[in-house]
Write a structure and sequence with these properties.
Elements: E1 13-16, H1 22-33, E2 37-42, H2 45-54, E3 61-65, H3 71-80, E4 86-89, H4 104-136, E5 140-145, H5 159-179, E6 184-191, H6 197-205, H7 209-218, H8 228-239, E7 250-253
Parallel strand pairs: 1-2, 1-4, 2-3, 4-5, 5-6, 6-7
Helix pairs in contact: 1-8, 3-4, 4-5
The structure holds nicotinamide-adenine-dinucleotide (NAD).
Length: 259
Amino acid sequence: MTPSIPANLEGKTILITAAGQGIGRASALACLAAGADVIASDIQADALASLMAEASHPARLRTTILDVLDTSAVQALAAELAPLHGLFNCAGVVHHGSVLDCDEAAWDLSMDLNVKSMLRTLRAFLPGMLAQAQRTGGGAAVLNMASMASSVKGFPNRFAYGTTKAAVIGLSKAVAADYVKQGLRCNALCPGTVDTPSLRGRIAAAADPEQAEKDFIARQPMGRLATVEDIAPLVVFLLSDASRFITGQAISVDGGVTI
Ligand code: NAD
């Protein structure tokens, strides 16, 4: 009988983008707790400092400023770091509105931050990850942040967002198909509505914030928003060897929205 492999990340080095707050931050803490060496990156220095202060195992955490819109910065970090075992591309932005609300600047930023950033990190980090997977016979895993919104199910006022998150799913399947024989897995994560600082910002920016919060909760069949702790264990699992037979999938963690 094959022994079961728990979702632990001991001995693995994992890079997480947008790890200063929200899902990325919770994922960094969960990966640390699961034994990984974590490189937590973001554009907010203060958020990274508070992450370091909260970390259970600061010796295994490195924080670094990384703007995923900056190709040179991504390449420079890849040149500096030892090859990764896991990469979680978490950075993304929500544009609120329909096609008629989306000018070219909003479209370009959404495509750049939500999709092209993954081109940057993959082109920079994949060669090292593949070489390491070949050399050691161990697996390498990429996880890309998509969303339930439009990538899985249509939602109003998520034109640019849904377009980009659908692209993330296609990108993840393409990467999975190209490297399935070389020990690299690639999946996309599709969360429901998660209580994070940016969601709170969207609620606060609504004409009627109280109603906006009720509306976000109403679209979740379980009657509550997800917490970041509802999402982070799945991140650990998908970056760990416990998910070694899962690749090219868009995996929902949406509290039943897409039942
Ligand atoms: P958030 O939006 O609250 O935080 C985003 C983080 O990204 C911040 O720390 C910010 O500093 C960082 N960031 C912004 N621009 C950056 C850049 N150019 N380079 C690097 N980092 C940058 O976090 P969240 O709500 O957890 O969202 C994280 C991801 O999860 C996004 O891709 C989002 O689309 C996706 N998502 C969120 C929800 C939700 O309901 N919150 C649902 C599904 C998917």
